[in-house]
Amino acid sequence: MAVCALRLQAIMDGKRLVIDDQFRIVGEYQNKIKPNTGNRVGDGFVKWALRNIRITERVHRVGLIAHSQRGFETFPDDEELAKFDKPDRKFVAVACAHGDFPPILQATDSKWLGWNDALRRHGVIVEFICRDDVERFHAQKTKTSTPATARRTGRKKD
Hints:
By secondary structure, the chain is mainly alpha-helical. About 45% of the residues lie in helices and about 10% in strands. A two-stranded parallel ribbon has the order 1-2. Strands 3-4 form a two-stranded antiparallel ribbon. Strands 5-6 form a two-stranded parallel ribbon. α1 runs parallel beside α3. The radius of gyration is 16 Å and the shape is globular. The protein starts with a helix and ends in a 5-residue tail after the last helix.
């Protein structure tokens, strides 16, 4: 997790965070951490984001337009992404809506490995900060997934 801490610190030290203008992303972060009382790296990062949310040099906000099928207009219209997790679509939509296609930093959610190739075809780069851990989690989940789970998640069971 030291790599994750360094990446978050780099953003706070001068890189720019890109979020949606309705604060869906920040809201999700707030559900997972405690910016006011927590002392983990993620807690500090969300606290920084909340403090800087209106400073465009640090936090860039992009507008998203709802789409009845894909969730957001800027989420790629791609059959391989049809089963992409609905709650995670906002991250992809923001990356696509932003002119520079900023990378999505992913620390622990191994499901993103299965979508990586399709996302790349649309210009979306997912940087797996702790790639070895994510690949290990993904392999464990794939081995233990049932046919019903594989259908629901879009993963094929070997």
